[in-house]
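Continuing the batch. This is chain 6 of the set; chains 1 through 5 are on the previous pages. Same settings as before, nothing changed between runs. Recording input and output for traceability.
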Amino acid sequence: MPANEKRRTEPYRASLPARHELKYFIHPAEVEDLRIKLRRGLKMDSHCIGGRPYAIRSLYFDDIADSAFFDKIDGVQDRDKYRIRIYRHSDAEIFLERKRKLGDLIQKSSVQITRRLCDQIIAGDPRGLYRADNQLLKDMFVQMRTKLLRPAVIVDYEREAYLYPAEDVRITFDLRLRSGLFSTSLFDPGIPTVCPHDHNWEILEVKFNNYLPTHVRHLLSGTRAEKSAISKYVLCRRFEPLEGDIQE
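Output for chain 6:
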């Protein structure tokens, strides 16, 4: 990303408003049909260089009781989830993020961190967060100290994103979801990964501020997709041991 573009996006990423986030399972054939409509009616995200999806890798964190996992399973309305996210397996831009569920809305906070601080957090050392000026970093410190927040699972996929300015609409295909098996090697593109589901589908996400504009509704109409409370984190922990599991 060019330096001037980076300066424009960082303040925006720091504190995003609560938004609607709709998720669907969608068959690959439906992806192809909808892709044609979206490319005619919406602008493609600039990160999709040459119209191609871009790689996203997230290392999700959970506490000693796997609260983020079980709160999602139990349908807890207000909950937090922490992750470190990178793009194209590069350490050029590293973001610590918190995704907060507030009833039917989602709020995301994000701060760019250094590779050194990232490595410290993954190693379970929160000392670099203690004197931070950023509130998200301070909150991460508290979570690591009081709830023993630690790396849980790597989530990989490729994102194809489309934008519409009214209501800040963002429609994404999250393709080829993979779970990193028992690894915290965030920057290693060669770690073993596996598909975490048994079905032939991809993930469609529709995000917007207050309402979905008519133009976008029209583009989405007729698309056969199954609305679901999808959590990539929960899906990708399918093969991971959970502290809350009952041992026989």
